[in-house]
Write a structure and sequence with these properties.
Layout (H helix, E strand, L loop, with lengths): L3 H23 L9 H5 L13 E4 L3 E4 L4 H7 L11 H10 L5 H13 L5 H8 L7 H12 L4 H7 L8 H27 L13 H9 L4 H14 L7 H10 L5 H12 L7 H16 L6 H13 L17 H13 L4 H20 L10 H10 L8 H22 L12 H7 L1
Helix pairs in contact: 4-19, 6-7, 7-9, 7-13, 8-9, 9-10, 9-19, 10-11, 11-16, 11-19, 12-13, 12-19, 13-19, 14-18, 15-17, 16-18
The chain binds carboxymethyldethia coenzyme *A.
Protein name: Citrate synthase
InterPro entries: Citrate_synth-like_lrg_a-sub, Citrate_synth-like_sm_a-sub, Citrate_synthase, Citrate_synthase_AS, Citrate_synthase_euk, Citrate_synthase_sf
GO molecular function: acyltransferase activity, acyl groups converted into alkyl on transfer
């Protein structure tokens, strides 16, 4: 099939059968015990969600439908053979579990282009906010305005049968993914440039077009954007943004509503906003010493200063990972290939040596290693995207490619309303 929806339609009955079998034959199989630590500790380690697209192993990191990042770089089609994977390819993989051919990816590129037109009132809704509003606030406002065109909401109101819920969810998810770059680029141009929209280039792919609409046309930046979107798309189901999208969609809130909620969680400094915080922190180090060439002793001193003032070192640590994030590693490899002499990249490399031992000394940090956000900023900065307050918007656009497919599967598999049980402090004490 060249058409993604036809491909999916063929897969759905098989997946429905698999889930039905699990429910009827294995419903009482235990996946682990729930402890007091889990309830008080943000549900860490509690396996409680079904998520099809990807899984994070504490030691190894992300696998997208079983594929590591190097596998994706090797096997997913790029613009040219050997190029970075196209975001359309990871979207196809996440939704179907199959590696797409170049023809399938090109056809999906076309499909997204035909869906990409953004109604004018979306830009007007953003214009109603002061230019000083945070880029994530402006972006999410745009997403809420896109919701006006929700097919799911419309069809549900006209009495859509449950078995067909996934169809308008597919429409909404694909339209959302297709329209986000134009909305996100508008936010960037409005806040940091002349406010004029750069029209999309029909000859470009999804990631290339997003870079182009932001105002960047360096082929290397376009390649970085493709890789960036691919590695930020999905990180299993329990992270704040993905989990939020799933949760909010379960009472049948449409994909726009669910995704706007996800973005609001992504905008938290311990989650997606960390990429902004990292570059801000790096700039503050450089400002303190007047140069990016900083000695190890000086760096140590600055890290201690950050920790002593009660702040975290942004870009380090993780809720699941216990090793260096492979999303960090692949960005490092990209930098080694294309910008080895950049002083900010060299500073980031030095931090990887200096930060972990200090965090380990604290005795409480479970993972002292760098995560995805420790690296992305210096690459974007190198290519001229220097406005760090914008970085989380890039993460947001990318996350739609992981969340969209899961929302479609949520409806295809008829997953129910999410409603875990809470407990009072008194009850918890009584049980203990
Ligand atoms: N700097 C300082 N202290 C840190 C730390 C860091 N980078 N990472 C963890 N800690 C501290 C925690 O604040 C916590 O302290 P308290 O017990 O005093 O509250 C303690 O170590 C234990 O935390 P943990 O179990 O190791 O980590 P969590 O699973 O609770 O939190 C995370 C994970 C990412 C929120 C945390 O490591 C952090 O704040 N990192 C910095 C922010 C960051 O980079 N976030 C981005 C994550 C990736 C993403 O979602 O984009």
């Amino acid at each position: 099939n060249l058409d993604l929806q036809s491909e999916l339609r063929e897969l759905i009955p098989e997946y429905q059968e698999r889930v039905k079998k699990l429910k009827t034959d294995y419903g009482k199989v235990e996946l682990g015990n729930i402890t007091v630590d889990m309830v008080l500790g943000g549900m860490r380690g509690m396996t409680a969600l079904l998520w099809l697209g990807s899984a994070v192993d504490p030691e190894e990191g992300i696998r997208f439908r079983g594929m590591t990042i190097p596998d994706c770089q090797k096997l997913l089609p790029g613009v040219k053979p050997g190029g970075e994977p196209l975001p359309e390819a990871i979207l196809w993989l996440l939704l179907t579990g199959k590696i797409p051919s170049k023809e399938q990816v090109d056809s999906l590129s076309q499909e997204l282009q035909t869906r990409a037109t953004v109604p004018d009132y979306v830009f007007k809704a953003i214009d109603a906010l002061p230019v000083s509003a945070h880029p994530m606030t402006q972006f999410t406002t745009g997403v809420m305005a896109l919701q006006v065109q929700s097919e799911f909401q419309k069809q549900h109101q006209s009495g859509l049968a449950k078995a067909r819920y996934w169809e308008p969810t597919y429409e909404d998810s694909m339209n959302l993914i297709a329209r986000l770059p134009a909305v996100a680029a508008y936010v960037y141009r409005r806040i940091f440039k002349d406010g004029k929209i750069i029209p999309r280039d029909e000859s470009l792919d999804y990631g290339g077009n997003y870079a182009h609409m932001l105002g960047f046309d360096d082929p290397q930046m376009l390649e970085f954007m493709r890789l960036y979107i691919t590695i930020h798309s999905d990180h299993e189901g329990g992270n704040v943004s993905s989990h939020t999208a799933h949760l909010v969609s379960t009472p049948l809130a449409d994909p726009y509503l669910a995704f706007a909620a996800a973005l609001n969680g992504l905008a938290g400094p311990l989650h997606g906003l960390a990429n902004q915080e990292v570059l801000r922190w790096i700039r503050s180090v450089v400002a303190e010493f007047g140069t990016p060439h900083i000695s190890t002793e000086e760096l140590k001193e600055y890290i201690h200063k950050t920790l002593n003032s009660g702040q975290v070192v942004p870009g380090y640590g993780h809720g699941v990972l216990r090793k260096t994030d492979p999303r960090y590693t692949c960005q490092r490899e990209f930098a080694l290939k294309h910008l080895p002499d950049d002083p900010y990249f060299q500073l980031v490399s030095k931090l990887k040596e200096v930060v972990p031992p200090i965090l380990l000394q604290l005795g409480k940090v479970k993972n002292p290693w760098p995560n995805v956000d420790a690296h992305s900023g210096v690459l974007l900065n190198y290519y001229g995207l220097t406005e760090e307050n914008y970085y989380t918007v890039l993460f947001g656009v990318s996350r739609s490619i992981g969340v969209g497919p899961q929302l479609i599967w949520d409806r295809a598999l008829g997953l129910p309303l999410e409603r875990p049980k809470s407990i009072t402090l008194e009850k918890l004490e009584a049980i203990c």
